[in-house]
Amino acid sequence: MGWWRPGRRRRARGTERAAGRVTTRIAEAGSRIGAAPRPDFRARLRADLLEAHAAERRPAAEPPAERPEVRRPSPLVRLRPLAVFTVLLGVMFATGARAYDSVPGDILYPVKRAAEATVLRLAVSDAERAKREMTAARQRAAEAATLAGAAGPDRDRLITQALDDMARTTRAALSRVRRRADRPEGEEVQRFAREQRTMVEPLLPKLDRENRDKATRYLTYIDTFATPVQ
Questions:
Q1: Which residues of the chain have pLDDT under 70?
Q2: What contacts 69, CB < 8 A, 6 or more positions away?
Q3: What SS3 state is found at 123?
Q4: pLDDT value for 192
Q5: Residue 228, by phi and psi: left (phi above 0), alpha (psi -120 to 50) or beta?
Q6: Where are the alpha helices (DSSP H) in the chain?
């Protein structure tokens, strides 16, 4: 072939010789890489492996012989919340009892009336409200009796207050109840009227003229409910 000249053959042979030299160097490098590790590297590796093996076989560290003491609260500290709750409960109970027994003029009497007003508002029907209003009227009669047996500059004024509240509450209660002999409310109203007469009538000699007239009119009013309807 005319194009294959001696110059080109010489360049091809030079290229082959260069490729052979590269191949030889790569083979020498591969032999050096695949050779065994140096002795100092092997010594360090062996020491590390022995140390790791010894650490695995070493027993776990013992807990300290003396642990820091944990201070537990004293029984008094633990019982303090319960004691405070008990005291508060006792104070509330004593306050409620004193408020229930209070009469007009006492410090706790407004608490008593506020509680009664709350109970009246919680009534779910006219019949239930009438029963609670009759209970309140009984309370006013008992307060008037307590005040009539006491002495004080405001005695007559406080009795007037109790009698007025009693009459107003009684009228409110009885206006909600139908007076029919065949209904349970009729018997309850009759019993209420008799109890109120038993409470109020003995007070008449102890009252001044104004309060005596109030009590007398009240008795006349409830007497119309004390007898059964024909």
A1: 1-38, 42, 53, 56-70, 73, 76-80, 82-97, 99, 178-185, 227-230
A2: none
A3: coil
A4: 93
A5: beta
A6: 6-33, 39-57, 75-100, 109-121, 126-148, 155-174, 184-200, 209-226
Query: Identity (one letter) of the amino acid at 173?
Result: A
Residue type present at position 67: R
Q: Which of 196, 198, 203, 199 is nearest to 221 (CA)?
A: 196
Give residue limits of the domains in the chain.
125-226
Task: Find all residues with CB under 8 Å of 229, minimum gap 6, and list them.
Answer: 179, 180, 181, 186
What residue has token string 């303090």? 80
At 169, which amino acid appears?
T
- Asked if 184 and 206 count as a contact pair (C-beta separation under 8 A), the reply is no
Inter-residue contact 229 to 197 (CB < 8 Å): no
Residue for token digits 């695949």? 34
pLDDT 10s digits, 146-193: 999 888 888 999 999 999 999 999 999 998 876 544 455 678 888 999
Distances (CA, A) of 58 to 46, 48, 53, 201: 18, 15, 9, 101
Q: What is the distance, to the nearest Å, from the Cα of residue 205 to the centroid of all Cα atoms in its chain? A: 53
Contact 137, 94 (CB under 8 A): no
Q: Which two tokens stand for residue 139?
A: 């309370």
Q: Which of 108, 126, 130, 112 is nearest to 192 (CA)?
A: 130
Q: List the one residue out of 207, 188, 227, 186 whose CA is nearest residue 141.
A: 207
Nearest CA to 170 among 140, 212, 201, 128?
A: 140
